[in-house]
Every structure is written in C-alpha cells, then in structure tokens.
Amino acid sequence: MTAVRNHPLVTFFVLSFVIAWGFVPFGSFGAFAPLIAALIVAPISRGRAGLVELGRRLVRWRVRWYWYALAIGVPVAVHLLAFALDGTTATVSAGTVVLMFLLRVVNPTDGALGEEPGWRGFALPGMQTRLSPLATTAILAVVITVWHLPLAFLAEGDLRSNVAIIVVGTVAVTFWYTWLFDHTGGSVLLVVIAHAAEGAVQHEGLLYMVVWLAVAVVLVVVDLRFWLRPAPVDATWAPDVPTTTARAR
After folding, report:
1. Closest of 146, 161, 154 to residue 207, by C-alpha
2. What is the DSSP string of 21-46?
C-alpha cells in the first residue's frame, strides 16, 4: 500500500499494462485495463477524495455546447476527409453509426469508457500537476502507444503496417484528447464522447491516421501558448477535491 501511495502514477501504468497484456496469450486485449487500474489506485493513493474526483470528472457535463459539437464533429470531419482522400465511401448506415457511438459511450469494456477514466481521468491530471500539457502529452503518447502495440500482432494484415497505424494514430489522438480535456475543465465525459465518435466508424487505414496527425499538428501550432504554460488548475490533481463541479467554459 505504501508503494502505491508513494508512486501512484507508476502503479497505475504497471497495472494498466499487466491487466491489458494479460489477455494477449488468449488472443484478446484488455481495453478496460486503465479504468480498472484507476479504480484501484485512486482510492488507495488519494483516499476517498481521489475516487470522488475521478467520478466527478467522468460526469462533468456542464461545459459550453460547442465543446460537445467539437467532441463529435472533429472525429466525424476526420473520417469524412479520410474517405474523400482515399476515394472510398462509408458502407454503414447513419443509424448503425449512431448506435455504435451510443454503445461505446456506455460500454466499460470498450476503448472509450474503458480507457479514458484512466488515461485522462487519472494519469493526465496527475502528470500535469508538475509538467506542462506538451511534456505530459508527449510522455503519455509514448506510454499509450506501447500499451496498444500488442494489437498489431492480434490484427490481420502486414505487421509493419499495423504498427505504423497504431503509432501514428495513438500519438495524434493523444494530443487531441489532452487539448479537449484541458479546455473543458478536466471533463473525462467529453473525451469519452470524442473517443466513442472516433471509433463509431471502422476506418483505420494509415491515411486516416495521418489526417489525425495533421489535426494534432494544427492544435499544437495554433494553440502553442496553451501547450507550454502550466495546465489549468481544474485539469490537474487538486490537494482537496472541490465540492462543486468545475465552471462551464
């Protein structure tokens, strides 16, 4: 218990890897591992207040309407642009996409709800307590990319291509999720929505990931001051968890 309290982030990362990769020998992957790791480490390392803070981030819905529009609109725009660039068209109906999106929002075994309470709800604010958003995101991008790598071996197709897709895509969306999280007062809910929207359409070719990389570059270049200065207070670990939700932005 003392080790967990002294090194909560290291413990969280170790658990996330052990739980997720523990399914690989059986031909699967524990995408829900970050959620489980956060639920274990948060109360041990930060007490009941840490668990409450995590829960409040997950239901932090009081943000300006345009953040919801961006959370859904940016992934949709990336999909549409990628389809246009590679000359293909989506073969699924709008109803199927909406249903898939809604299922991903509430399914704790899926990437959206299974990952974001851990990566963005626990690790990101903890790291941003000491590091800038840029430094935090760069480190987190590497960690999450390595965490995803077993999927390259589980997926069909060329291994090098699978690895390239995972590396480019994961690094890119990590910057997008940090930017969204910090600009919405540390709302995990908005990131879950964005993650669910990103995966509602199965379009995961390398070109699609390159479009996401372009989005990440634009976010860094256009909003460079945000990335270099200290993270917003409500997007970091607070010494005392506030009794009210963060202000709407």
Report:
1. 161
2. HTTGGGT---TTHHHHHHHHHHHHHH
Nearest alpha carbon to residue 151 among 192, 111, 210: 111
> Closest Cα partner for 197 from 223, 173, 215, 178?
173
Tokens 């790291």 label which residue?
127
- Calpha distance 179→222 (Å, rounded): 12
Q: How many helices (H) and strands (E) does the chain have?
A: 13, 0
Counting as low any pLDDT under 70, the low residues of the chain are: 89-92, 204, 240-249
Paired tokens of 164? 């390239």
Residues 6+ apart with CB under 8 A from 10: none
Query: Which residues make Cβ contacts (< 8 Å) with residue 188, sequence separation at least 6?
Result: 54, 57, 58, 60, 116, 117, 120, 121, 181
Q: What is the pTM of this model?
A: 0.93
Cα distance between residue 51 and residue 136, in whole Å? 22
**Nearest of 73, 79, 34 to residue 188 by alpha carbon:** 34
